[in-house]
Write a structure and sequence with these properties.
By secondary structure, the chain is an all-alpha fold. It has three helices and no strands.
Length: about 90
Amino acid sequence: MSHDAGQSIEHDHPKRSLESVSGYLAALGLFVCVLGVVWHPLRLCVPGLILALVAAGMAKGRLQLAAVLIGAFCLFLGLSFAVTTGHALW
């Protein structure tokens, strides 16, 4: 096999796979937090927010930031809905 001097071989597969896994974790955390708004906010929003925070720690991106911010808002919204309607928090 010949190799041209102008070509460079880059091996950034671990970085791309880490960002890919981080994106899936952020999406999963976001889904769990949105689901937690309507059904047991403490049981679902807190683990979803932890997933989003882990994803944000793994890779910095707009999806990870959005998952953390939306997850925190969903926790606040779910707790306020549960308290005002008298439903169970846990």
